[in-house]
Design brief:
Shape of chain A: globular
Radius of gyration of chain A: 15 Å
CATH architecture of the domain at 38-143 in chain A: Orthogonal Bundle
Mean pLDDT of chain B: 92
CATH topology of the largest domain in chain B: Cytochrome Bc1 Complex, Chain D, domain 2
CATH class of the domain at 38-143 in chain A: Mainly Alpha
CATH class of the largest domain in chain B: Mainly Alpha
Strand content of chain B: 5-15%
Order of helices and strands of chain A: HHHHH
Shape of chain B: globular
Helix content of chain A: 25-40%
Mean pLDDT of chain A: 88
Largest sheet of chain A: none
Number of strands of chain A: 0
Structural class of chain A: mainly alpha
Low-confidence stretches of chain A: 1-24
Oligomer: heterodimer
CATH topology of the domain at 38-143 in chain A: Cytochrome Bc1 Complex, Chain D, domain 2
Strand order of the largest sheet of chain B: 8-7-9
Number of domains of chain B: 2
Low-confidence stretches of chain B: 1-7
Number of helices of chain A: 5
């Protein structure tokens, strides 16, 4: 076990502690800048994941990312193009970036999909994460299919 | 993938550089380190504000003038128990040239920061003893029109707000607001307008988020509207509870935004997507 793994495990334990207190937040264990374990134990559904990624009220990923979804107009380019992310990233690496990307890059603009906001959150979203753990698993399953061979 | 990303971003910046260069050539006032939202607008939107062929403001095409004209009319209209109009104290509206570029501004009488709207309200209430009807509220047609009419006298002049001395604490509040993450999406103003101008957020090209075009006719609203209305929209987009239009929070924030725009030409009444 490397020093980082130790730290990761420690951070994970701390996180688990924090999240256990918040009924609406997902619990996850961070190891080595990844979240290796599935959040639900249930396999993700790529088709549902694609829908969640497009949905403006859910993932809204196209606000910031180009994805191989030509039927949707106007993809943002704030974040990297995700057309080949299935080749470059593992599910465990994707999971932490969706759950709480600030654990990797504290300054990032990318929202945490499993961690509720804390400051002046609109009443109807208070204490709620943007996605459910299963929706995140579905999005990951979809991202894993993106191998650079689809038209953009 | 990375390469493509870099190329897209580079293309974005190149596009803006070309627009800025072309505009400077045409003569629309530029200036300041950051660029007006005008330069991040599509040509059709720009054309509603600036007539390239005439090399002048496109006031005839700018729907904001429906409100500005109402403001101009009010300048000479007697209102309130004192039986006065704006013109009786201030003379020709051209006496207002340069005034709005210094707002929001610290006011020693009440020790508060005043947006231009606050100053207009103060004149109406205390000097004219006029009633603040619905039309004179922050987002009312007459207040929008009068604010834009006063700003019109400074159009093309550089924004020039003070952030030192008595204004400093208000500036600091605004700056903190700007850099604080908020809402369900947990983003700060800086996350978009400092880190990503020139990038696309879906169909919107992110600008420096400057206030120099407000009040603005926004195509999405199909109406003339205030800066505080725009800010409130940015708050809601990140699912954050907005503050009231005219609130101290937004006025402090307006001072910070104006300080980022120091040197940039005032464009109100603007036109935006």
């Amino acid at each position: 076990m490397t020093y980082r793994t130790l730290l990761g495990a420690l951070a994970g334990a701390v996180l688990l502690g924090t999240f256990a207190a918040n009924a609406n937040a997902a619990e996850f264990m961070v190891v080595d800048d990844t979240i290796p374990a599935s959040l639900t134990g249930k396999a993700g559904d790529p088709a549902a994941g694609k829908k969640t990624a497009i949905n403006k009220k859910k993932g809204n990923c196209l606000a910031c990312h180009v994805m191989p979804i030509p039927e949707e107009q106007f993809h943002g380019n704030i974040g990297p193009n995700l057309g080949e992310v299935g080749n470059t990233m593992s599910a465990a690496e994707m999971r932490i970036r969706l759950a709480d990307p600030k654990l990797i890059n504290p300054g990032t603009i990318m929202p945490a999909f499993l961690k509720p906001g804390t400051t002046r959150v609109l009443k109807k979203f208070e204490g709620k994460a943007i996605l459910t753990p299963q929706e995140v698993e579905d999005v990951i399953a979809y991202l894993l299919t993106l191998k650079g061979d689809l038209p953009q | 993938m990375r390469y493509k990303q870099i190329m897209m971003t580079a293309a974005g910046f190149l596009g803006i550089a070309i627009i800025v260069a072309a505009c400077a050539q045409r003569g629309i006032p530029t200036g300041g380190d950051l660029k007006s939202g005008y330069f991040y607008s599509m040509p059709e939107t720009q054309a509603m504000q600036w007539d390239t062929e005439a090399n002048d403001w496109a006031d005839f095409d700018n729907p904001g003038f429906i409100w500005v004209d109402q403001g101009a009319e009010q300048w000479d209209t007697i209102n309130g128990e004192e039986g006065k109009s704006c013109a009786e104290c201030h003379g020709e509206a051209s006496s207002m040239a340069g005034v709005s570029t210094t707002y929001p501004k610290y006011n020693a009488e009440d020790g508060k920061l005043r947006a231009l709207q606050d100053q207009i309200t103060d004149c109406l209430v205390n000097r004219m003893k006029a009633e603040i009807t619905k039309d004179w509220k922050w987002e009312g047609d007459l207040m929008l029109g009068m604010t834009a009419f006063v700003k019109l006298q400074s159009r093309g002049m550089p924004i020039n707000v003070a952030i030192d001395g008595d204004a400093a604490p208000f500036y600091e509040e605004g700056k903190t607001f700007y850099n604080t993450r908020r809402g369900a999406l947990d983003m700060s103003c800086a996350n978009c307008h400092v880190d990503y101008p020139g990038s696309w957020a879906r169909a919107d090209l992110i600008s420096n988020g400057l206030p120099n075009g407000y009040p603005t006719f926004r195509l999405k609203w199909q109406k003339f509207g205030s800066l505080h209305r725009r800010i409130s929209g940015c708050n809601k987009n990140i699912r954050a509870e907005p503050y009231g239009r005219g609130s101290d929070e937004y006025t402090n924030l307006e001072l910070y935004l104006a300080s980022r725009a120091n040197g940039v030409a005032s464009e109100a009444p603007g036109v935006r997507r």
